[in-house]
Structures are given as C-alpha cells and as structure tokens.
Inverse folding.
C-alpha cells in the first residue's frame, strides 16, 4: 500500500508551471503543490477546464495560489508568453513541470486507447504525439532554461513512464515519445551541470486512475491519480537541490521516512544502460 501522506515540506514562495494542468495527473499535481503553499501556473490549451482547477485550488488552498494560462506548448511563441505572464503575475519562477501529453484516448479512438501495431497507427496521431510529448516538452524547457541559468537555480521535471512501455508491443507512438523524454532528461541534466539548474524525470510507477475514459480490465487495480504528489513536492523543494539526471517513481514513496530519504528511495536506475 502506497503511503501518499504529503511530506512536511513548505513550498511557500515557490512558483511552479504545470503543463497539462487541466485534467488527470496535471490537475492532481497542481492541487498537491498548492496545498503545500506553492503558487501554480496552470498551463494548457483547455482554458475553461483550467479555470475550474484554479477555482478548486482557491477553495482548498486560498486565493492567489493559481493562475490559469492558455498555453499551446507546440507553439514556441505561446511558451514564451507563458513564461512572460508567469513572471508578471508571480514575479519569478522556480520549477517547470513538463506534464502535458497528447491524450492517449479520445474522439476517434477505442476505449482501450491509441495502442495499435505501428503499421496500423494513424499517422496524424503519431505526428501530433511526437509534437506534443517531445517537441512541446523541449519548447517549454528551451524557454525557461535561460531564465533559470541567469538566476543560478531552477528545476525542470519531465513526466515519463515505466520502462516496459518503451518496448512493449503496440506501444507506439506513446512509448517512443516517452523514451525520448527520458533521453531529453539525461542530456539536459548534463548540459545544465554547474549552472544550479537541475533536470529530472518523474513517473507514476504504473497505470493511474486518471482517465475516466479508460476501459478497466476485470479486477484491475489502478494507482491513485495523486500517487506522484509526495515525491513531486520533494523534487520542488530545497531538499532536492543538486539532485539531477534521475528517474523518480511516485509509487515507491515511503511516507514513514523523512522527506529526503523517501525521495531518494524513489530514484530508479537509468532507463538506458550507461546513462549513470
């Protein structure tokens, strides 16, 4: 049983951008960060849904904790506007959480999702998935990295997935893009070495109960949608300063340990041989 008790960490004063904050994992992480005192920029093209999440945060964490910002991460100008408006609203930025991904389920797809042999995959969906998951993640990091480097600190957290998804049957394009996100994480961590800016990957550690359209198998047990919140809060805190180039699995969090020890227990081996 996962102990999802949020760590005793105060994030007051920290400003965090969460992409894809309108639903699922992004919504859950935004609520958790705000609960611990962070000011959260909710970024997504789905502005009406973002406003609902902002209202939830206002009700649970107080006013002025969240800012809904319509953002298309596949548009570099939109990413730059996201940073500019974040700085205008909250006068700083400490963490970027690259959570946004192209939905695996939705119109035109079966309830089981976009899981086909590669030769049966819709080419347009493949292209969109690469643009959002890989290029969009890069665009946001590319936008905030110079700001972080100039201030001498900052944290980039990229959402990834379990390693078996990188090579499982019919798991393209999703698995392909998440393998690329892992590679981005390792490369960027090395590019940022010595700047005070860190880059890590975060994953749930299994299928999450984050999508109401998911077709559940009989007897299937899904991880709670907020399974990553404890380790995310630690990764956003000073306790993880200097920790970089890692993969952190939310399902491994042990709330009986102190936050720093619990955070490091969640660190998995690198996804690719020779990366550590």
């Amino acid at each position: 049983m996962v102990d999802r008790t949020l760590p005793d960490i105060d994030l007051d004063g920290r400003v965090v951008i969460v992409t894809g904050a309108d639903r699922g994992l992004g919504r859950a992480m935004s609520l958790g960060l705000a609960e611990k005192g962070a000011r959260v920029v909710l970024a997504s093209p789905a502005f009406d849904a973002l406003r609902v999440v902002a209202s939830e945060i206002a009700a649970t964490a107080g006013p002025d904790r969240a800012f809904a910002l319509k953002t298309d991460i596949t548009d570099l100008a939109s990413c730059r506007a996201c940073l500019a408006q974040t700085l205008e609203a909250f006068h700083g930025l400490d963490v970027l959480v690259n959570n946004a991904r192209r939905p695996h389920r939705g119109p035109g797809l079966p309830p089981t999702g976009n899981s086909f042999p590669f030769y049966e995959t819709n080419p347009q969906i493949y292209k969109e998935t690469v643009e959002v998951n890989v290029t969009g993640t890069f665009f946001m990091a590319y936008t905030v990295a110079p700001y972080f480097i100039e201030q001498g600190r900052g944290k980039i957290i990229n959402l990834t997935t379990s390693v078996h998804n990188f090579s499982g049957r019919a798991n393209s394009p999703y698995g392909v893009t998440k393998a690329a996100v892992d590679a981005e994480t390792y490369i960027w961590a090395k590019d940022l070495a010595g700047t005070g800016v860190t880059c890590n990957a975060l994953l749930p550690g299994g299928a999450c109960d984050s999508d109401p359209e998911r077709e559940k198998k009989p007897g299937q047990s899904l991880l709670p949608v907020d399974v990553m919140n404890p380790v995310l809060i630690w990764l956003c805190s000073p306790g993880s300063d200097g920790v970089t180039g890692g993969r952190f699995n939310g399902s491994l969090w042990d709330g009986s340990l102190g936050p720093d020890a619990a955070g490091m227990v969640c660190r998995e081996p690198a996804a690719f041989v020779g990366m550590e």
